[in-house]
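Troubleshooting: if your tokenizer reports a length mismatch, compare your output against this known-good record of 130 residues.
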Amino acid sequence: MSRNNRFAGLVQEGMRVKNLSLRALCRKAGVDPSLMSKILAGKRNPPDDDAVIDSMARSLELDPVELYVSVDRLPPQWRSVGSNPELFEAVRELLEGGRRAPRAAVLPPIRATSAPSEKTVQDSMPEELL
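Known-good structure output:
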């Protein structure tokens, strides 16, 4: 299934579940209905703007991560994976090898120096990626 079909399928299913018309969804999400109609029909590529994807997810009460993945993108909160070599390798191993690396060996807690109450990178990552 192409990335447009996956995105369109998620949005259309969300519209069905929420009993929203295309116009009602677009009004709620602040998206142009003509553009969204073309995207859902497969005539245009899915949105590449974070704000649009987030707004669609909120409006349909969908998991934004699922919408991002449906358009072959990393959600903003996961983009730190690329800048952390240990975390990147752990994710790669999970995706390619299907086995979980030992948690302590994957990523030691990293704390921001500016505020001791900030979350570690591990705290913000989904459990299945750790």
